[in-house]
Specification:
Layout: H1 14-19, H2 22-38, H3 43-46, H4 54-67, H5 74-78, H6 83-86, H7 94-109, H8 115-143
Helix pairs in contact: 2-4, 2-7, 7-8
Length: 144
């Protein structure tokens, strides 16, 4: 997202502002995990998370805030984030990736954002979701 021009999503804090700010990111994350708790398709990925989602919700909120161009506080609190490495202990294949993206898409549908930002967000968030899946599959192939 670094090669964007002023006014484009991905430039500085344009995406965070399009989302509605840090409170909106918190709302998105809360909705995301609420969806994960209730959607039958998400039961498998929900089991990959702790029963108490308090810290998990906070981590995703802080991460997404920085990822959208806001303050980058994640490293201050939990260390450097490398998304595939953070999920290395999990088995992520297409069904898990798709369930995660479905939860995010469902949560985003409730956000008061423009359709073009919603499409941009989902397109961009798919990139790390795909990376996590590819790294997980690569690890399993290397062990085989």
């Amino acid at each position: 997202m670094a090669d964007r021009k002023p006014g484009e999503y991905g430039y500085e804090d344009t995406s965070l502002r399009a989302m509605g700010g840090e409170e909106a990111v918190r709302t998105l994350v809360d909705r995301f995990y609420d969806v994960m708790n209730t959607l039958p398709e998400a039961a498998g990925i929900r089991r990959m998370h702790p029963a108490d989602l308090t810290v998990t919700r906070d981590k995703l909120t802080v991460f997404l805030t920085g990822w959208l161009g806001g303050p980058r506080r994640y490293a201050e609190r939990w260390g450097r984030m490398h998304i595939p490495a953070a999920h290395a202990h999990l088995t992520i294949d297409a069904p898990e990736r798709d369930a995660w993206l479905l939860c995010m898409e469902t949560a985003m549908a409730d956000m008061p954002v423009t359709d073009d930002f919603r499409a941009y967000f989902m397109r961009e968030i798919t990139v790390p979701a795909n990376r996590v899946m590819m790294v997980s599959q690569g690890r399993r192939q290397a062990r085989a």
